[in-house]
Write a structure and sequence with these properties.
The chain is an alpha+beta fold and 78 residues long. It is built from four helices and three strands. It has a single domain, classed as Arc Repressor Mutant, subunit A (Orthogonal Bundle), CATH 1.10.10.10. Helix content is 56%, strand content 13%. It has a three-stranded antiparallel β-sheet.
Length: 78
């Protein structure tokens, strides 16, 4: 039996961690890709592409921020 997560599960964990970073900030703000990479110690390009494709973040000129839907979903889950 494998107890290790699949690649898809690993991607989901990374994506969730990055989105949580953006949502859990005390004030909504713009995040640079570089800033997120420093915080997470990895290339976040694929994660940001998946989050954007899912409608959970906005992107503009190298900056990202959570959508209202992502913020609201986080509030509902609490």
């Amino acid at each position: 039996m494998h107890d290790e997560p699949t690649l898809a599960e690993q991607d989901n964990m990374i994506d969730g961690s990055i989105l949580s970073t953006m949502i859990d900030a005390h004030e909504p703000r713009l995040w640079s890709r570089d800033e997120l990479e420093r915080m997470h110690g990895r290339d976040v390009t694929d994660s940001l592409n998946r989050l954007y494709g899912s409608g959970l973040i906005h992107r503009l000129k190298g900056f990202v921020w959570p959508t209202r839907a992502a913020l609201m979903s986080n509030e509902i889950a609490l």
